[in-house]
Amino acid sequence: MPDVFDIAVIGLGAVGSATLLQAAERGLACVGIDRFVPPHVWGSSHGETRITRQAIGEGLSYVPLAIRSHEIWRDLERRTGRELLTAAGCLVLADGGGTSAESFISRTIAAAQRFDIEHATLDSDAIRQRFPQFAVGRADRAYFEPGGGYLHVERCIATNMMLARAAGATCRLGETVAAIHPEANHVVIELDSGERILAAQAVVAAGSWAGGLLGEPFASWLTPTRQIMHWFPLDPAPALTRAWTASPVFIWSHPDRTRDFYGFPSIDGGCTVKTANEQPPVAVAPDTMDRTAGPDEATRMHANHLAARLIGVQASAARSATCLYTQSPDAHFVIDRHPNSDRLLVASPCSGHGFKHAAAIGDTIAAQLAGGATDIDLDAFRLERLQTVR
How is the chain split into domains, by residue range? Predict the structure, then answer.
């Protein structure tokens, strides 16, 4: 019989790699398993950057996770000398006259006030004065959080993996989990090679592969969807180059909240800016999804979102890349014990806003698995709210 690990973590993206690190540094015997070699381009955690902010308009339950994640990233930076979080600021813009857009920015402001997060509210004149790269209308307004910014996603995952190994974690990379069998005293993890790995507890953080691995009801609850990111060239005017290289990250809410888009400062010296928007929740299979990005997709992105709002951004993308979201029915996270086994914990921080919270989620899960205390409450993400969804 093989040795029994304390913890097995299946999937080593944002949350899985953070969980592996935090569990290993608590002295637990850990094994991490991933079908690829993280960081990689096949899941949800690539493409250079992800937005981070602490006032979360999606719900107050997320704010402690975001605050704690910032603390963890800063600690990892001090330990490694790597820049993981760039505090470029975060600007949340709302087109005037849109009730849903106004609701999101109002919830963001309320979250900042509730948790005493440094911020400012800006009218259209103030936005134009401070951030001339944004073409705002007279009725538009914005929330600005100076402590927000972006995470260097591949670097974050690589740092988690490096430190997890240094703390004694075993990493099984390029190996696919075929099945998981919770038993009375341990969890049996079968690899597609036929090898079995045993662990007292297992965490499934497999992103878009989680539903297929876990079966029902998770296969119905966790829906992989195709998303796309674009890097658009900038006009070479010096004033625009300065504005875009010093830009905050931004989230721009249209009157219809399904038409949000977001973007980043130019991190390549004023050559391009990265932007994206949430694609329709059309289910895809992660292993067969179309990973090519056609020029027509960039053309639509520019016409529908950028042309009237971002100054100096050219119409044809320099490059594009696809990634995966894992959508839950209510767009909130799923973090809970499996209904059929307390030895199996499912961690699916999904629906496109998981990376900013991942460090704290990994820390909280590891604390729970080690039997320790935590100040973070994950009750809002329990499975029971989805029991009637099929």
Answer: 4-46+154-222+330-386, 90-146+224-325
pTM score, two decimals?
0.97
Nearest to 79 by CA among 3, 151, 166: 166
Backbone angles phi, psi at 18, to 5 degrees: -65, -40
Helix, strand, or coil here: 332? coil
- CB atoms under 10 Å from CB of 268, counted, come to 14
At 107 the pLDDT is 95
Task: Please state, in angstroms and rounded to a whole number, the distance separating the CA atoms of residues 124 and 136.
Answer: 6
DSSP state of 267: S
290 φ, ψ (degrees, to nearest 5): -70, 115
193 and 186 in contact (C-beta within 8 Å)? Answer: no
What are 276's two structure tokens? 């994206």
Residue in the structure block whose two tokens are 């297992």? 202
Distance CA 193, CA 175 (A): 8
Residue 252 carries which DSSP code? E
**Does domain 90-146+224-325 fall into CATH 3.30.9.10?**
yes
Tokens of 288: 């067969």
Can you name the residues that pair with 253 across neighbouring β-strands? 94
- Class for the domain spanning 4-46+154-222+330-386: alpha beta
pLDDT at residue 384, rounded to an integer? 93
The SS3 assignment for 150 reads: strand
Per-residue model confidence as pLDDT tens digits over 70-125: 999 999 999 999 999 999 999 999 988 666 678 899 999 999 999 999 999 999 99
Q: What percent of the chain has pLDDT over 90?
A: 90
Please give the average per-residue pLDDT across 53-68, as a whole number: 97
Q: Which of 204, 203, 86, 202 is nearest to 153 (CA)?
A: 86
